[in-house]
Amino acid sequence: MKAASASACSGCKTRASSSSFFTGFTSRRAALGKLVPLYRCLTRVAVGDGRRTSFWHDDWLPGGSLSISAAALFSHTTSPEATVAQALAAGVDGILAPRLSRVGALELDAIRTSLREVTLVEGADRRSLIRCSGPKNKLLTGALYKLCNLGGVSSTNADFIWRSRAPSRVMFFGWLLTLSRVQTRDTLLRKTIVDAAGAGCPLCDATLETANHMALHCPVAARFWSMIGVEVPQDAHVRDLHLLPMPPSITVETAPAFTQLCCWQLWKQRNAAVFRGTAPSLPLLLKLCRDDATLWRGRFPVPQHPGVDGWHVCLGGTQNPPS
Ligand SMILES: [Zn+2]
């Protein structure tokens, strides 16, 4: 009995030890897995046989990581972890869903152009450190620490956007707008999705559509702002959206959401013209803004409801929105 008991204890010990080994191994593997995106941000790959390079996540094409430079197309992939070798063997279409959005299809055309220059060769892919590197291409841990912890820059727009009580999709749009990173045609030109001849404003004769032009200075946008009593300075820029002078009926507390509502509807009007051929209409634009004003009222605390009701004054509606 004693021997059997000892043997059982010994077995338990072995299992416990084995179990803790695998638990430790799994947790270490998980911890290392979390570092992979950082590792990819710091490195660039010269592709050899393409077997150790991520098609979507690694920086191996001139435009950088495809998951960032072709984000719309990446959202259609069926193989987010495909290697370059697998993607080229299957063809890019082989790792994509059958139907693509319009932007995704444009990004695919641009990628095909880059891929024509790629030829896989014998030998392993060569990865080099392009950020936080010191002598002999060694990783500088101090620089990496600063990059991860101290590299942030405070944005004057952060509170204006993210504390505005606008719906989250509108705040996200507002954030991209202040950074001039919405998909206006200057952005598409930079990504080589359109050429210079196709980079003009879809609503006027301007030869380059920028975020600034679309939201503030396009004649269509200027008429809208003027109609609602907002005087847009000639040098106004979307990065200073929080400085746009508001009419008297807009309260300080609700001005951030009101400004984003206006930009959001201007963007939707622009997209309706681009994708559906709908002609801009100021009365319709004002009505859609009033509809949103009514919908968004419940997002504000009760003491701020009169402030939201004030939106209807400058949007040409009634002081009291329909309940
Ligand atoms: Zn325009």
Report on the architecture of this protein.
- By secondary structure, the chain is mainly alpha-helical.
- The chain has two domains: 36-149, no CATH class; 158-314, no CATH class.
- It is built from 14 helices and two strands; from the N terminus they run αβααααβααααααααα.
- It has helices at residues 2-42, 66-69, 71-74, 84-90, 102-115, 141-149, 158-162, 168-178, 185-190, 211-217, 219-227, 255-276, 282-296, 305-314, and strands at 43-46, 126-129.
- α10 runs parallel beside α11 (219-227), α12 crosses α13 (282-296) and α13 packs antiparallel against α14 (305-314).
- The longest helix has 41 residues, at 2-42.
- It is globular.
- Bound molecules: zinc ion.
- Residues 201, 203-204, 206, 213, 218 line the site of zinc ion.
- Zinc ion (ZN) binds next to loops.
Number of helical runs?
14
Indicate the multimeric state: single chain
Q: SSE order, as H and E? A: HEHHHHEHHHHHHHHH
Say how many strands there are.
Answer: 2
Shape: globular
Beta-strand share of residues: under 5%
Radius of gyration in whole Å, from Cα? Answer: 27 Å
Report strand order across the widest sheet.
Answer: 1-2
Low-confidence stretches: 1-16, 319-323
Cofactors, ions, other ligands: zinc ion
- Ends distance: 82 Å
Sheet having the most strands: 2 strands, antiparallel
What would you call the structural class? mainly alpha
Helical percentage: 40-55%
Mean pLDDT: 85
Number of domains: 2
